[in-house]
């Protein structure tokens, strides 16, 4: 192995990134500031030599190294649990520090991938400079054979409930922009006005206007998935570019339970499907391991006239869904019938993973099909509702530069919050429809 090397004329806190070592050729890529040195073995380039005033040894490694004239510290990728209040039952999620996602080594990616599948959510800090291209490349790395946005062309359908919420980055179509406020320009998008989803547009009833800025609700619990023609994405990445500061809100369930939470403005709330499964009765666990859900064709258009429950966990049944005759053409082979539980590909643990708003029928273990929509929705709600009680919810307190990676086949999430027009929020979202089906409890792909 080459080295040790010595640093010359490095400014204080100058970042030096060491590229991946190719053992068979002994090739290293060394970056010092804006300079790059390639292809050297036992001897360093002439520009990297011993300096009599510094005498700071530079040992080549796969890690990121901060070099100062007076100090040198090796900063390895660091993974730590999220800071969770003692009153919370949340047992998932990690923070990741000291990682350069633009120059990610295989070793560090393996650590991140393992953390996401074991902890479901990974908050990678201090990524304000991350480009949309690098965000896309990182997300794709979890599922290299795929390349198409997870919702396909759903965004182009003006009747879709998703249509108002996202705008596509022209030069990176797998990455969407979401948020609140007006922007002259962002990543090729010109004169855009973003509107944060508000529950009054989707729920049957709304919080009173005079309480609107102090109180809020879960908007719509979901996983990111087209649920028709395309397989659910494995991973979603969310990047906080602009975050409003200061205000907090009371999140109300408004479902007769009296439950509520204190949350930061514009939080994204997460719950674990693994926990949702774990707290079921043994009888219900057996049922969800064996039953399947059938999703509606073109579900986000189908549900568009209907209204949601006040807890954001599924729709009310008032007969308002669009009939098939008013939907785009339907290919029966594209209708998704998926397990209620997904198996984690790393841990083998089961997660109760159902998009409650899009379900149309339940395929029972005995072969019968439950098609009464109210009964279907009531059953799904009974199974999932305990898992969204306050003690099981993680409301992320966003900081600009946070990049959150989450196991889209192991958690449900929802936007939260009510904004004034002046409060600006800008996020980037990336997920891609997988080329393979979800992993069921029986180990088969669906």
Question: Can you walk through the features of this model?
Answer:
With 446 residues, the protein is of the alpha+beta class. The protein has 2 domains: 71 residues, no CATH class; 353 residues, Double-stranded beta-helix. It is 12% helix and 27% strand. It has 6 helices and 28 strands. Strands 8, 9, 10, 11, 12, 13, 15, 26 and 28 form a 9-stranded mixed beta sheet that branches. A 5-stranded antiparallel beta sheet has the order 4-3-2-6-7, with no helix packed on it. A hairpin with a 4-residue loop joins strand 6 and strand 7. It starts with a strand and ends in a 15-residue tail after the last strand. The N terminus is likely disordered. It comes from Hymenoscyphus albidus. This is TauD/TfdA-like domain-containing protein. Its cofactor is Fe(2+). Pfam families: TauD.
- Class computed from helices, strands and strand pairing: alpha+beta
Q: Please estimate the helix content.
A: 10-25%
Low-confidence stretches: 1-73
Q: How many beta-strand runs?
A: 28
């Amino acid at each position: 192995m080459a080295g040790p090397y010595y640093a010359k004329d490095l400014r204080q806190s100058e970042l030096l990134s060491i590229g991946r070592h190719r053992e068979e050729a002994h090739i290293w890529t060394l970056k010092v500031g804006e300079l790059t040195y390639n292809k050297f073995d036992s001897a360093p380039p002439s520009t990297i030599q011993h300096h009599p005033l510094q005498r700071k040894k530079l040992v080549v490694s796969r890690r990121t190294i901060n070099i100062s004239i007076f100090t040198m510290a090796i900063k390895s990728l660091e993974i730590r649990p999220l800071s969770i209040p003692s009153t919370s039952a949340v047992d998932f999620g990690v923070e990741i520090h000291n990682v350069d996602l633009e120059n990610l080594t295989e070793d560090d990616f393996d650590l991140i991938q393992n953390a996401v599948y074991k902890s479901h959510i990974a908050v990678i800090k201090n990524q304000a400079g991350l480009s949309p291209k690098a965000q896309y490349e990182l997300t794709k790395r979890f599922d290299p054979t795929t390349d198409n946005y997870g919702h396909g062309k759903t965004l182009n359908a003006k009747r879709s409930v998703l249509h108002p919420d996202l705008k596509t980055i022209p030069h990176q179509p797998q990455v969407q922009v979401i948020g609140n406020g007006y922007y002259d320009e962002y990543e090729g998008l010109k004169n855009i006005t973003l509107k944060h989803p508000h529950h009054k547009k989707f729920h049957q009833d709304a919080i009173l206007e005079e309480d609107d800025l102090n109180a809020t609700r879960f908007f719509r619990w979901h996983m990111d998935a087209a649920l028709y023609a395309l397989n659910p994405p494995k991973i979603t990445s969310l990047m906080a570019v602009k975050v409003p500061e200061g205000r907090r809100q009371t999140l109300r369930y408004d479902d007769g339970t009296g439950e509520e939470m204190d949350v930061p403005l514009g939080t994204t709330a997460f719950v674990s499907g693994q926990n949702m499964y774990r707290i079921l009765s043994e009888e219900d666990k057996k049922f969800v391991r064996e039953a399947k859900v059938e999703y509606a064709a073109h579900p986000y258009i189908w549900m568009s006239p209907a209204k949601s429950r006040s807890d954001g966990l599924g729709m009310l049944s008032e007969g308002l869904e669009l009939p098939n005759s008013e939907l785009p053409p339907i290919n029966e082979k594209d209708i998704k019938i998926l397990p209620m539980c997904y198996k984690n590909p790393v841990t083998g643990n089961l997660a109760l993973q159902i998009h409650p708003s899009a379900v149309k029928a339940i395929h029972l273990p005995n072969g019968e099909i439950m098609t009464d929509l109210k009964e279907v929705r009531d059953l799904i709600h009974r199974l999932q509702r305990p898992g969204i009680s306050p003690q099981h919810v993680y409301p992320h307190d966003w900081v600009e530069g946070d990049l959150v990676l989450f196991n889209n086949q192991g958690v449900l999430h929802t936007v939260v919050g009510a904004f004034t027009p002046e409060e600006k929020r800008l996020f980037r979202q990336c997920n891609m429809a997988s080329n393979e089906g979800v992993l069921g409890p029986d180990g088969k792909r669906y």
